[in-house]
Structures are given as structure tokens and as C-alpha cells.
Amino acid sequence: MGYELRVERDAPLGYAELASVLSSDAGFELRGSAETAEVVARHGDSAHQVAVWSGRLSGTPVSDWHVAQLARLTELVGARLIGEDGETYRIRDGIVEQVNGSSTYEFGKVEEIIAAGPVEWSA
After folding, report:
1. Strand stretches in the chain, DSSP E
2. How far is residue 80's CA from residue 41's CA, in Å, rounded to a whole number?
3. CA angle at residue 4 from 104 to 93, to 5 degrees?
4. Can you give the pLDDT at residue 1?
5. Could you give the CA distance from residue 104 to residue 21 in angstroms, rounded to a whole number?
6. Domain presence at residue 37
7. Average pLDDT for 71-91
8. 41 in Cβ contact with 47 (< 8 Å)
């Protein structure tokens, strides 16, 4: 199992609200039911799982593309993207960032990461 990022916000996120947000042209598709579902995003002709829903929303990214998609999704639902070690991920001024205390790591520009596609990180 990989490193999990979870979507958190002050007001609980319900399945109906998630479905409503994703029904707009957000570039995501929700597949499944209120009990268990997945959020997918397309790149080219392929659909890639970005997050899973099981009463809460989380994802296990394997590329910068996945992190950028999770950050976009998080913004859509008005939440925060939190890593297992308490670091946060966000989009600031069009840049995907990881913030841990006073340290900030920039993944790069959102549009460039999304255009590059889901190229998996090497081990």
C-alpha cells in the first residue's frame, strides 16, 4: 500500500455533495455508490483513479499528476489535502505545493503536470 492523502474539511463531505460538485464539468467522474466509489480523471483515452470514497475521500498518488488531480479535487470541495505525516498539499498561484512546517516543495505548474499525464514515480 502506498502513501495516503486524505481530503479533510471542517464541514463533513457527503456523497451527495461530492456527486453534485463532480457532475459539473470539473474533469472528474464519480463511479460507484454512496458506500464505495472512485473518482477518476481522464488523460488521453484512459481513465485513472484519483481518489476513493468510503464515507471519506482519499487517494494514494503514484505520480505528480495524481497529486495535482487530488489538489484540484480538494479545491473543488473546499477542503484541505493532508498527508499521513501531517503535511498539506495545495495549489497556490497555479503551482502544486507540499507544505510541511516552514518548508515548501513545489511540484510544478498545474497545467504542465496535468498535460504531462500520470507518469509514475520510479522507486
Report:
1. 5-8, 28-32, 37-43, 46-53, 57-59, 80-83, 88-92, 95-100, 103-109
2. 19
3. 35
4. 43
5. 29
6. yes
7. 96
8. yes
Strand partners, 88: 82, 99
Whole-structure pTM value: 0.93
* Residue 123 located in a structural domain: no
- From CA 91, how far away is CA 82, in angstroms rounded? 13
C-alpha span between 58 and 81 (Å, rounded): 9
pLDDT at 73 over 90: yes
pLDDT for residue 122: 73
The mean pLDDT of 21-40, rounded to a whole number, is 90
Q: Please report where in the chains the cell 484519483 appears, as a residue.
A: 50
Domain that holds residue 111: 5-116
Query: Does 121 fall in a domain?
Result: no
- Cα-based torsion angle of the residue sequence 63, 45, 79, 36 in order, rounded to the nearest 10 degrees: -100
The per-residue pLDDT of the chain, averaged, comes to: 93
d(CA 76, CA 106): 20
- Whether residue 46 is contained in a domain is answered as yes
Q: Provide the residue type at 81 as one letter.
A: L
Counted domains in the chain: 1
